[in-house]
Amino acid sequence: MKILLLPAALATAALAFAPTGAFAAAASPAPAIDVRGVDHVGINVPDVNAAARFFHDMFGFVAVTDMEDVPVDAAFKTTFNMHPDAKVKTIRMLRAGDGANIELFQFDAPDSVRDQPHYDDIGSSHIALYADDIDKAVATLRAKGIKVLTDPIRMTQGPAAGNAWVYFITPWGSKMELVSYPNGQAGEAAAGVKLWKAPAKEAGRAPDRATVDSLVKHYVAMLNDPDAASRARAIDTYYTDDTIFNDPEGLIQGKAGLNALVGKLQAANEGFAFRPVGTVTLQNGAVRVPWTFGPASQPKKITGEDILTVVDGKIANTTVFLHGAPH
Fold this sequence. Notes:
2 domains; 16 strands
């Protein structure tokens, strides 16, 4: 059996892999294909029903689509490099939390290789599942009888510093990974790119009225603030780092983009002001803010409402709705 690199060796190797300016710049040109993200990862398993139960019972993944005894002809098998006598028994798509989906395949192919590939074999791959608390997750795996190869390995040097990871063996023998980096990884700042961030959980608790009232007050003040530096400070305090602002002008992501959008809005509507009207309503983590927008002589020139999603006491998402054309 192959042996994983020791954590110390991994950390040493990581030091030599810090992103350079040239590496970061390579991401700037427009891509040949505008891919939005990873939709799913497909894996072959000996028993789809058993694998789906494992993913559901252990991680809460939910089956969405299912196909049984999928017909494939000889030409298809040749094109997709399948064994001539293979049959596609089951294909099942699982919704896997807030990440990519997982697609399970079960084949009936008498000549197929049943041995698990070595870790360093070409074509060998793995799935990494993100956990907020990796120590708790590992303890649960072990309590359920799942083999975990090591204790969580915590990276403390190089671009992967901040990352904790561990491999475990599924009931059918595949290696999978648990990973966690709640405070990010060091290399993200150097590359200017976030690898991935799990959506924050509110655990079913809505923000309290005092928090909402304070956020709405500062939200309206920020929209009316003509000073970009002052707006930036307010946005930094009251918005999440990856905040999204869904406006009729377009979809804006991030604090800097939001600040620029507000500045553009003010420049195009000199003398206008936002004024909250009616009742600010709260539903779980969503806040509904009705408003008017216009000059002092015509304060209701434009009306609408914003839906704010509050996560951990900050505004994570804003969706702007206009009530028809300006009066």
